[in-house]
Write a structure and sequence with these properties.
This protein has about 375 residues and is α/β, with parallel strands linked by helices. The protein folds into two domains: about 210 residues, Spore Coat Polysaccharide Biosynthesis Protein SpsA, Chain A; about 120 residues. The chain is about 55% helix and about 10% strand. The protein has twelve helices and seven strands. It has a seven-stranded mixed beta sheet with strand order 3-2-1-4-6-5-7, sandwiched between helices. Helix 2 links the parallel strand 2 and strand 3. Helix 9 packs antiparallel against helix 10 and helix 11 runs antiparallel to helix 12. The two termini are about 45 Å apart.
């Protein structure tokens, strides 16, 4: 072979989003390689800057095998967005997504590829709920939660798709590229996002597999994940009207109002504080509450930590202080001009909320 001739690219790229899954990398790589030994493959690990050194280990493997690649992301997290970045980094005509925790059955990959190459489908889904599949050691509570999430997804995906929240699937590149610009990339349910974002109904086939025990890494099921799932549903249904982050920002703001009045009540009735002292204290506490909650929920994928958290808190307070001045100033003017107190107050709140969201999005979380 002429050493100057270029080598052909991979036929299939396996995208593996990881966070703290160093212990699984070697075994997963070996398993995927063994399953796809008859095909031209590559594995793209997309690591969200794991503190356990997952990315460093992947690079060590990549130095010995060019079919292994590492995409290390700094300052942001999220399974769906990691999968999207991994797919965009690939040139393969077939794209697979599999978790890095060894819970998915990589032995299904050749059959998935065969179905896409020789069948009339766009997506092949590894399903826990179709006949022959299973959820492993899941308890009754988790099964109920999963089935409830599946029912909620029916507004976005076909009724015949038994496992729309599966994180194990393979898709044609053309189908991914047709949907990629409309993907929300929120949370962990990238398959549901793909179905909901496709301009044409996706033809699919499900293959059964049994969910395995987790070997290492962080579980993706927590309260914030459930919140992100709700945000994904809202974004796919109403995101063309109003940004879903703005909805989340307003929900946090509404909770902040409750916190503000709770602090005032505590200071007035128990501490007997003066109005100015109480209002100032409640305002600072509420701004801190709003910033912390937005950092965990609204901008979870861009979460600030350490010194960046402190700088973010400062910029958030400055922006929201200006927003409060705009709120009061506009409401006062409209009240004097029209005499409609509540409409004037609503207008002030709306302008203040839009200002706070727009400015903090650019100033506080833009570099995350």
């Amino acid at each position: 072979m002429d050493p100057l001739l270029p080598l052909r690219g991979p036929e299939i790229s396996v995208i593996v989003p990881t966070f703290n899954e160093r212990e699984n990398v070697v075994e997963l790589t070996e398993r995927i390689g063994a399953s796809l030994r008859d095909f031209a493959w590559e594995i793209i690990y997309v690591d969200d800057d794991s503190p356990d050194g997952t990315a460093e280990l992947v690079r060590q493997l990549a130095a010995k095998d060019s079919r292994i690649r590492c995409v290390q992301r700094m300052g942001r997290r999220g399974l769906s967005s990691a999968c999207v970045e991994g797919m965009l980094a690939s040139s393969a005509p077939y794209l697979a997504v599999i978790d890095g925790d060894l819970q998915h059955d990589e032995r299904l990959l050749p059959q998935m590829l065969s179905e896409l190459k020789h069948g009339d489908v766009d997506v092949v889904v590894g399903s826990r709920y179709t006949q022959g599949g299973g959820t492993g050691d899941w308890g009754a509570a988790r099964i109920r939660l999963s089935k409830f999430g599946t029912r909620l997804s029916r507004t976005l995906v076909p009724d015949t798709l038994t496992d729309p929240m599966s994180g194990f699937f393979m898709v044609r590149r053309q189908s991914f590229e047709a949907a990629v610009r409309k993907l929300s990339a929120i949370g962990t349910k990238i398959l549901m996002d793909l179905f909901a974002s496709s301009p044409q109904p996706l033809r699919f086939k499900e293959l059964p597999y049994s969910f395995r025990l987790r070997q290492a890494g962080d579980s993706k099921l927590d309260s914030a994940t459930k919140w992100e799932y709700g945000m994904l549903l809202l974004d796919k249904m109403f995101g063309h009207i109003v940004p879903v982050r703005f909805v989340a920002f307003c929900i946090v703001g509404a909770l902040g109002v409750a916190v503000h009045f709770s602090i005032l009540t505590l200071l007035f009735q128990i501490e007997h504080a003066g109005f100015l002292q109480g209002q100032a204290t409640a305002t600072i506490v509420t701004m801190t509450f709003n910033f912390a909650l937005n950092n965990v929920l609204t901008y979870r994928d861009k979460r600030l930590r350490g010194m960046r958290w402190l700088r973010g808190w400062l910029s958030f307070n400055i922006a929201c202080s200006l927003g409060a001045c705009m709120n009061v100033g506009l409401a006062t003017y409209l009240n004097e001009a029209t005499g409609t107190r509540y409409l004037a107050a609503l207008a002030g709140i709306t302008v203040g909320a839009v200002w706070n969201y727009a400015v903090t999005k650019r100033l506080t979380w833009s570099r995350a």
